[in-house]
Specification:
This protein is an alpha+beta fold and about 160 residues long. It is built from 3 helices and 10 strands. Strands 1, 2, 4, 5, 6, 7, 9 and 10 form an 8-stranded antiparallel sheet that branches. Strand 9 and strand 10 form a beta hairpin. The longest helix has 24 residues.
Length: about 160
């Protein structure tokens, strides 16, 4: 897994979340310890996944608890209080995935990489596993702490396209 593919996603996720939570009381946005894991992962409750195809293939997964998803949806909707993970909350988390991946893809296109994105797919539930058939590729996990609002794990599994 090449760092030049991954770095734009981690930088974009941190930047977008830091900007989103800059006015929120008690929300200190910090990047946690990066780790590598199997591409098969049990989600924390809510995950938005964007697929990549072209010069690279793989996926980017934003994984969080339902409580964190509700908090993020509230912040993104002007401080609205969400207590139910309804259609607006779901669409908001998908939009977060769009914003983060769009920034990363723009950076990668500027570096000469060419690929397309799938629209974000949203997964919710307990004990759900998300698997990617990418062979020997491990997923890079970048936790982003949001203070009392929880954390979002940016889970990136990307490889150069096998030709």
């Amino acid at each position: 897994m090449r760092v030049d593919y991954i770095n734009p996603f981690t930088v974009s996720a941190f930047s977008v979340l830091k900007d989103l939570f800059k006015e929120v009381k008690d929300a200190e946005v910090k990047q946690g310890q990066i780790s590598l894991k199997s591409t098969t992962k049990t989600i924390m409750g809510v995950a938005a996944m964007v697929g990549l195809a072209g010069d690279v293939e793989g996926r980017v997964l934003l994984d969080m608890s339902k409580e964190t998803a509700l908090a993020v949806a509230g912040v993104m909707n002007g401080g609205e209080k969400f207590t139910v993970f309804d259609e607006l909350a779901k669409a908001t988390i998908q939009e977060l995935a769009n914003i983060i991946t769009a920034q990363a893809v723009t950076k990668l296109h500027d570096l000469g990489f060419k690929f397309d994105l799938t629209p974000p797919a949203l997964f919710t539930g307990e004990n759900m596993e998300v698997s990617t058939n990418l062979g020997e590729v491990e997923a890079l996990i970048v936790p982003i702490e949001l203070g009392p609002y929880g954390k979002i794990e940016v889970n990136i599994a990307i490889r150069e396209r096998v030709k």
